[in-house]
Each structure stands twice: as C-alpha cells, then as structure tokens.
Design goal:
With 342 residues, the chain is α/β, with parallel strands linked by helices. The strands form six sheets. It has a twelve-stranded mixed sheet with strand order 8-10-13-16-19-24-27-30-33-36-38-39. It has a ten-stranded parallel sheet with strand order 9-11-14-17-20-25-28-31-34-37, with no helix packed on it. A hairpin with a 2-residue loop joins strand 21 (188-191) and strand 22.
Length: 342
Amino acid sequence: MKTTVTEIMSLVGGTLLRGNPAAVLTSFASLDQADESCVSFFGNAKYLDQLQETRAGLVLVPVEEAPAPDSTAVVLVDNPVVAFDTIVREYGVRPPEFMPGIHESASVACDATVNESEVSVLANATVSAGAVIGKGSRIGSGAVICEGATVGEDCEIGPNVTIREGCIIGDRVTLHPGVVIGADGFGFEFIEGRHQKIEQLGIVRVENDVEIGASTTVDRARFGETIIGEGTKIDNQVQIGHNVTIGQHCIIVAQTGISGSSRIGNYVTLAAQCGVAGHLDIADHVTFGGRSGVIQSIAEPGGTYFGYPARPLKEDRRERMRIKQLGGLLKRVKTLEKKIDS
C-alpha cells in the first residue's frame, strides 16, 4: 500500500478538514496502534481518548469537532466504519482471485453437476454423487460436499467445510473454514436403560447472503428442515440444534448455542456465549446481551434482555443493584442485632 491523503479522500468520498493532502500513507491500523504512516478511523465514542492521543497520519471522523491531534490529517465522512472498510478492501490482503477449474487432486463424482468452466474446486476437495455446485462458487481445499447437497451461485465454501447429504446452500453464501452443515441432530430416547439414537433424516437449508464463521455447526433436522434465514450472519464456534429456524438478518455471536426446535425471529441479535433452550419462540428485533440464558419464549417484538434467566435490561440492572446492596444490608442487620442484644 502506498497512497496519499488526497487519494484516500477521493476513495471514500470524504472532506479534508485539515492536514497535508500530499502526505504519503503506507498502512492502516487502529487509533492506538497507528503511526504517521497509517490511516485510522474514529467510529465509536468509547475510543475518544485514543483519538486524542493517536499518532495516525490520517483519521476518518463522523463530525467536524472530533479532537484529533494537530499533526493528524482529518477527513470527514458519513460513516467512518464503512469508509475504513472501503480502504481495507482496496489496499488490504485480498482473497485469491476466482479461477474456474477442478484441481487434479479433487474428487468429483461423475454424476455431480459441476461445470468446470464456471466453478472452482480446489485441492483435495470432494464433490459427491448427485451434488450440485452453482456458477461462480468456489469449493475450498479439503471441503466435502456430500451426496445430493446443493451449493448455489457465487458461494465461498472454505477449506475443510462439510456440507452433508441433501442440504441446500443458497446464493452468495460464505462458509468459513471448518463449518459443518447437516451433521446429525442430538436426539436420543432412553429405552430399557440405554440411550437409543433417534434418526435425523431432515436437512439444513441456508438461505441467500448468509455468512457462517469458522467451526460453527448447524445440525440437520430430525425431519423437515433446520433453516438459517436470508442475510443472517453467524460468528465462529456457534452451535445450532436440529429443527431450529433462524429468521432473516439476525446476528449470532461466538460460542452461542441454540437448542433444538427453537424459532428465532427476524433481526434478532444474540451476543457472545448466549444459550437458548429448546422449543422456544423469540419475536423479531429482540437483542440478548452476552451470556444471556434464554429459558422462556419472548412474544413481544423489540427489547433488550440480559442475564440468567434472560430478563428485560432495566429489570436485570435493578436485580444486580439489589445484590450489590446485600452486603450493606447485612451489616445493618448485624448492627441492629447487637443493639437489641445489649
């Protein structure tokens, strides 16, 4: 990367508030790690102290009054986060260019639907009998597309991803390394002193524009479908149980677990390490804070919930405050007891 303040300003459609337009920039970094060669951005008020002390050569800001050091060039943009992403996409490390073809070490069944001139199947990948790979999709090294599975158009299937039998992946879906789509749901019946397996014969359907992070697992339905709705984004190491339905444009953050047969509405956010019990219904536009434990359905759309069991934010804060007050209350009780005894 080698560019100037003027070129960055033109790229992001910003306005130079101050600084040398000819200054050379060769990298990008966070406010606290940047030096005079770096582009950075101010996108969250909690980093105001870092903005005031940054050594960055250029900072993208959302307001004219942003208090960056005098030595830093300042460019005003509508959304610093999006503008910075534009810069990273332009100058950062890019994924390999899409090159259609089937690597000589890949295994593609003779009855799989794979157009060698339109898809890319990389080294040691497997495309099994009856599988379908859509135009413009790339199957990463070591990935396994099992019998009868379908991958839509313009998908990015990362290294060592497994898509099990009959599962359906929509268009423009990204599955990061190690994702497993369609492993058996966890279903057993206790009979005569033993856990007897209940067959899991449904599928997983991942709709268009979904992104699923590394090592996340989505279990196949016992019957019917486990569904990941259009536009939903799932972080790394998330577990989604059988017959779960996740609505459109949800955010599910790392290490969250959703038990079987629960239904998550549209635009729901589950922060890191949330747990959702089975057979629940969650309304649209609900947000759960990190480590929330959801053990009952939520019928009212909107609202923010925290804690275990998950409860409305204000209620959770009141409860935590009461707990903090218990120590002082105990001291007062002991003082009163001493007065009574005396």
